[in-house]
Write a structure and sequence with these properties.
Layout: E1 2-11, E2 14-20, E3 24-29, H1 36-48, E4 68-76, E5 79-88, E6 91-96, E7 99-100, H2 104-110, E8 113-116, H3 128-142, H4 144-164, H5 171-211, E9 217-222, H6 230-248, E10 259-264, E11 267-268, H7 269-272, H8 275-291, E12 301-304, H9 313-324, E13 328-333, E14 342-347, E15 350-353
Parallel strand pairs: 3-13, 3-14, 8-12, 12-13
Antiparallel strand pairs: 1-2, 1-4, 4-5, 5-6, 6-7, 9-10, 10-11, 14-15
Bound molecules: adenosine-5'-diphosphate and magnesium ion.
């Protein structure tokens, strides 16, 4: 899929902005604070109606305005679709080809984005929530079934936690919710296992391109149920922790605690990896879902915010080679030169195409 046109209206630092984009590399260049990340954020917002910056939607509305709007034209298999998103303090409205959508999945299906942000450098050392988010976002894009199952799982988890917070815990009710959690947990965990296996088939190759020589890199998934029949083992785990959960008024085991680590040449990168190695590995991992999609027309849009910062010359060259092979990619930076790229100069409240 390709983003061919973007209009922003009172979105972050932009009062009004109109940009046409090309296939291949699109570069947003400008000094610090000029609005490059804001542009990347607007493009990413199209894929999930959510910013990656854990900021409320309200912060997307330009200071002094009542609402923000994003208009975009997205092309896939020769079909152009017009997306309109209006964000107000009371919520948002999304239209595709002029018609309001009923479910978020209609948008999510239409626009797929792989994203790298400067925060991803801490992906392996940081909190597990970010790593689970990587799994959830990518799996939701791959499978509508996962998208709805994870939504159901999270609602059930909220219910279980609410039940644990009651002064008098209703044990029968707790048991029913626990059973339902196990029921949706089983397929979700299976989806995660398959996805991690698929990532591991290509990850070393992507990383080796970035490093410039062969590197073995592997995602190690730490599932809730490590072995044995899922339902039985999960039930045992919930029973074991029930007293603890009641005391702490929170569900302490389950899918919401799953995690993964990353091994570089057999060693945990969070413990042994340098800053640079963490950076390259996180770029490789965040890009890898792109390479799992074979159909050219379905290839996601890549949005890479500040991906070049702190990379030395050799690794920058490797990254440029990799980026240049992508169908459509948006890259922000201060001073990047990539042959054949479309370049946009970003300066406060403005962005314009140079070539
Ligand atoms: N809601 C908003 N309204 C107006 N300006 C905003 C809003 N949110 C952020 N900004 C401004 O955007 C600028 C940061 O833009 P950003 O895209 O992060 O810059 P960079 O080019 O460094 O990536 C800051 O000056 C900030 O004040
Ligand atoms: Mg920035």
């Amino acid at each position: 899929m390709k983003l061919s046109h973007l209009t922003l209206s009172s979105f972050r630092s932009y009062e009004q902005l109109d940009l046409d984009f090309s296939n291949g590399v699109n570069l947003f260049l400008g000094p610090n604070g000029s609005g490059k990340t804001n542009l990347a954020e607007a493009i990413y917002y199209l894929s999930l109606a959510k910013s990656w910056r854990s900021a409320p939607d309200r912060s997307l509305i330009a200071y002094g305005h009542d609402y923000a709007s994003i208009y975009a034209d997205v092309i896939e298999s020769g079909m152009s679709r017009h997306i309109e998103i209006h964000i107000s303090p009371n919520g948002r409205k999304i239209l595709i080809n002029g018609k309001p959508i009923k479910r978020l999945s209609e948008l999510s299906r239409l626009v797929n984005v792989v994203l790298f942000t400067p925060e991803d450098v801490a992906l392996f050392k940081g909190s597990p929530g970010e790593r689970r988010n990587f799994l959830d976002v990518n799996l939701s894009k791959r499978s509508l079934d996962y998208f709805s199952l994870i939504g159901r799982h999270n609602r059930l988890l909220d219910e279980r936690n609410a039940a644990l917070k009651q002064s008098e815990v209703d044990h029968a009710y707790l048991e029913v919710i626990t059973e339902r959690l196990i029921e949706v947990g089983e397929p979700l965990e299976a989806y995660r296992r398959v996805f991690v296996d698929e990532l591991n088939k290509i990850l070393s190759e992507v990383a080796s391109e970035l490093y410039g020589h062969e590197k073995k890199i592997r995602v190690c998934f730490h599932p809730f149920v490590r072995s044995g029949p899922y339902k039985e083992e999960a039930l045992k785990a919930y029973r074991r922790s029930e007293q603890y959960d009641i005391v702490h008024k929170l569900t302490s085991v389950g899918l919401q605690r799953e995690d993964f680590s990353l091994e570089l040449e057999g060693k945990d990168i969070a413990i042994y990896g340098s800053q640079g190695e963490n950076r390259l590995a996180s770029i490789a991992l965040k890009l890898s879902p792109y390479f799992l999609i074979d159909e050219e027309e379905k290839k996601p849009i890549a949005v890479l915010d500040d991906v070049y910062s702190e990379l030395d010359e050799e690794h920058s060259k490797n990254l440029t080679a990799l980026i240049s092979s992508l169908s459509q990619v948006f890259v922000t930076g201060n001073d990047i030169r990539i042959d054949g790229a479309s370049t946009y100069d970003v300066s406060v409240h403005k962005a314009s195409r140079r070539n």
